[in-house]
Specification:
homodimer, 344 residues, alpha/beta, Rossmann fold, 2 domains, six-stranded parallel β-sheet, 12 helices, 15% strand, globular, DgcN-like (chains A, B), DgcN-like_C (chains A, B), N-acetyltransferase DgcN (chains A, B), DgcN-like_N (chains A, B)
Chain lengths: 344, 344
């Protein structure tokens, strides 16, 4: 599964900007792939990029129409179908993050069959994976893990990719969630995989690579989240990380959606090391990434300095202060890290 | 999902006894539900129960035809279809452990729709679960865990049910795998569930119960198996066990299907306690169940005695020596365990 850029971003007629969160994430991280947006009358979201018709997008070389919006219930409204069919007829693939599968609409399925185009339903996984093998693969790998869900794991991995590439390092973001798949054009939503194949899917997502290449793997959930720890465990075993970054949101007291108390960063480091050693005995913590949005600037700096002293690891807020300190340590700890041979 | 007994066991024309392993397991543990077997010409398996036609089974009150055999590739041969349709026309539900879904055969789907019968594809999960909540449910729970896959977890849970019921204790086996689902008439193959819902599915499999009732939950995989630890982790969190039994096969050096070394029993106890405390802080090991088939009688007894001394826990081979010592400790440690109000 490879979603081919460049993209035309289809926003339908969603009612607010939040409904276009996935599309916005793609524009934030892959602006160069997003040549335009297509909005229906009364659309209340705006990605701040050029409005464009299907014909206009085709003229610009667009290869894929991205349905990167969330409707109530994740359904695909009937009145969006004609735009999607038009894109297919213009030679585009279509990728959607909706719950409704694109091919469940007969007009869309028929058009894709007729024109030989691919439909990607990123929220679903029709792929067949092998079970995980646990054999150590060549290449360096970093996994972002969390004290909870939604603690900045995707953002941190993407920020690391950006900073590492800016320093000429050979690194690729590896997606394990829906938005990440659109951003990288590859990967799969790991929580949608059949349970038996979690670690096997991750072995596919971050396959054998050059010995000095870094895969920066997006974590999911938390080993301490009673709903999703199974996913986090399989992801850890499949990722075989050499290094991990703990992502944390300091104002939460219970984990998202449940009454379970938040674990400490020390707990997360300890259990990640304990379980991660199964498939990579060399696993080490690299640093801590904190979402300090709820803290003032001085307070945030003090909080991060205290954490850094406590754990003997760099601590930063990737949004506020960047991930430079994490990459500094990565380069120091892994001097073998490869340089980019290509333009990133 | 509730598969209603009594059962007629359909063996088709499988080529050997091993292909009827699931059916044999059902007869071993639920002989009273298995009123007969139906075999096609050239069938090489035999469950040692009465051969019976659909009409004969109907006369005996059979409610479900069980397709409990494994063919090459798990496919449903076309020439089995007419028997299945005949069972449906006679008013039976049909439950299958094959990979091919029953409803994918148009004649079977049509017959089930026409006669209002239910088709169970035990290997698949079309059920919708909530995500796990982690809230402590009333009732006592025991989980069998393993140093590896196929280490006796199902057998141990079933043997505990039998022994506990024989002592008048209120206990139910809870299935998390295909054979177990046929044996208990309920449950689901947890490894076929979408990853996000592993612990939620287990919360459904072993729901809130009387405070003194025991659920004996069939474990899967191992927290140390690089292919399946995600399943084991979600199962542990969803099961919220008060007690667990470690199942072990002493002659293995690597885990099934991979090159990973077998963990020690101490490792398994330690990590199970560590992770299990997330959803049940009272979790404790109850004992050790060993498959000593490869050892002589005296050697097996010495091995178990040594284990018992080392861990301060009862150790037994459930097949060779029964699970009496485990139930002795359970009754001693949990004097509140409820008595059967019904005939088990």
């Amino acid at each position: 599964m490879q979603i081919n850029p460049p993209y035309l971003m289809f926003l339908g007629d969603v009612h607010d900007q939040l409904a276009a969160k996935t599309a916005q994430g793609i524009v934030d991280w892959r602006a160069e792939w997003c040549v335009g947006q297509l909005r229906l009358p009364n659309c209340k979201a705006d990605l701040g990029i050029a409005d464009m018709t299907i014909a206009g997008a085709k003229a610009k070389g667009v290869k894929t129409l991205i349905v990167g919006v969330a409707n109530a219930g994740g359904v695909l409204p009937d009145h969006w179908t004609s735009v999607i069919v038009e894109a297919i007829e213009a030679g585009m693939d279509v990728a959607s993050g909706l719950h409704t599968k694109l091919g469940s609409k007969p007009e869309i399925a028929a058009a894709a069959a007729k024109h030989g185009r691919t439909l990607f339903d990123v929220r679903h996984s029709d792929m067949t994976f092998a079970t995980g093998k646990g054999d150590k693969r060549p290449g360096l790998r970093l996994l972002t893990v969390g004290t909870d869900c939604s603690a900045g794991k995707k953002y941190t991995a993407l920020a690391l990719e950006k900073e590492m590439r800016a320093r000429g390092l050979d690194a690729d973001f590896r997606a394990t969630g829906q938005t990440g798949v659109f951003i990288s054009g590859r990967g799969c939503a790991i929580d949608a995989v059949v349970a038996d194949f979690i670690s096997g899917a991750v072995e596919w997502i971050a396959p054998a690579a050059d010995a000095n290449h870094w895969d920066l793997i997006e974590g999911q959930g938390s080993l301490f989240h009673p709903s999703f720890a199974g996913v986090s465990m399989g992801l850890l075993h499949g990722a075989q990380p050499d290094a991990f970054v703990v992502c944390h949101e300091p104002t939460r007291t219970t984990m998202r959606g449940v009454k379970t108390p938040l674990p400490s960063i020390a707990d997360v480091i300890d259990l990640t090391l304990r379980c991660g050693k199964l498939t990579n005995p060399a696993i080490k913590p690299l640093g801590i990434a904190v979402n300090t949005k709820a803290l003032g600037e001085a307070e945030a700096k003090k909080y991060l300095a205290d954490l850094s002293a406590e754990y003997g690891l760099p601590a930063t807020d990737p949004i506020r202060f960047g991930v430079g300190v994490l990459v500094d340590k990565l380069v120091a700890d892994y001097p073998q890290s490869g340089k980019l041979a290509r333009v990133g």
